[in-house]
Design goal:
The chain is an alpha/beta fold and 261 residues long. It has helices at residues 53-61, 75-78, 104-113, 119-132, 137-140, 149-162, 179-195, 207-213, 231-236, 241-249; strands at residues 3-15, 26-38, 42-47, 68-73, 87-90, 167-171, 199-203, 216-221, 224-230. The chain folds into two domains: 1-17 and 24-72 and 168-175 and 195-253, 3-Layer(aba) Sandwich (Rossmann fold), CATH 3.40.50.300; 81-165, 3-Layer(aba) Sandwich (Rossmann fold).
Length: 261
């Protein structure tokens, strides 16, 4: 398969918390990360809390710069003549990214206007985006403060899709949601991956969800990649002790029986 992005020897370091400037050394949050993402796939990243998952997502999104190493993008991404960034990220605090006093359709429209679409195409694009996310037209007329948490998340996602990203990063999108909401959101992500052929990177501690959503999975421990492979292979035959520990801690069996109902 063709790669959209390759990470080579990525490190991200911050000063230690030692007292006094002279005593501060650098601590690696990410330590020699090497991985790739293929066009059209959903790659999952999981691991212990504080292991570097979200930091890695921010490096890929360009929010922070690595201390060393490089991100190698496919030439088609780099040559794309677009005002919007080819990478968009849905943060965990998605509600804070919406203007609470603007209508959702206006927020989406603004992202499309930046790309110089005319009014007819903007209207059609809005309809397509709302449909892909199962957002009803009446919700698009509401303002940010009128939406529930789940509706705010989909509205934020709609704005990101309006930017026509090549890579969509999801940072803990299933946290603080009940099981029904998680499953509904899972179906939305599966739908846009297939229908829009959108490459996605999902950061989550929820291995059960990642098992259903992703094609491949990367396990991170203390800033290092300790396991990577096809999702079902990693679940069925984990190689690293940390992966085995995570599966056991989540009470996940190594078969698909519990997911087939």
């Amino acid at each position: 398969m063709r790669e959209i992005l390759r990470l080579e020897n990525i490190c991200y370091a911050v000063p230690s918390s030692g007292k006094g400037f002279a005593n501060k050394s650098m601590v690696n949050i990410l330590d020699d990360i090497n991985l790739y993402i293929n066009y059209g796939e959903v790659l999952g990243i999981s691991g212990e809390s504080g292991g570097g998952k979200t930091t890695l997502a921010k490096v890929i999104a360009g929010v922070i710069k690595p201390s060393q190493g490089k991100l190698v993008w496919d030439d088609d991404v780099l040559s794309e003549n677009s005002i919007a960034s080819p990478v968009q990220i849905l943060f965990q605090n998605h509600g804070e990214t919406l203007n609470p006093y603007r209508r959702i359709e206006d927020i989406i429209s603004e992202a499309l206007k930046i790309q110089k679409y005319d009014s007819v195409l903007i209207k059609r694009k809005i309809e397509e985006i709302l449909s892909s996310l199962n957002i009803f037209a009446d919700i698009s007329k509401k303002r940010g403060y009128e939406l529930s948490g789940g509706e705010q998340q989909r509205a934020a996602l709609a704005r990101l899709l309006a930017a026509n990203p090549k890579l969509l990063i999801l940072d803990e999108p299933f946290s603080a949601q009940d099981v029904e909401s998680q499953l509904n959101l899972l179906k939305v992500f599966q739908k846009i991956n297939v229908e829009l052929k959108l490459t996605m990177l999902c950061v989550s501690h929820d291995l059960n969800i990642l098992r259903k959503l992703t094609d491949r999975i990367v396990i991170i421990q203390k800033g290092k990649v300790v396991e990577e492979g096809r999702t079902e292979e990693v679940f069925s035959n984990p190689a690293h002790d940390h992966t085995k520990y995570l599966l056991k801690a989540k009470n996940l069996s190594l078969t698909l029986t519990d997911l087939e109902t």
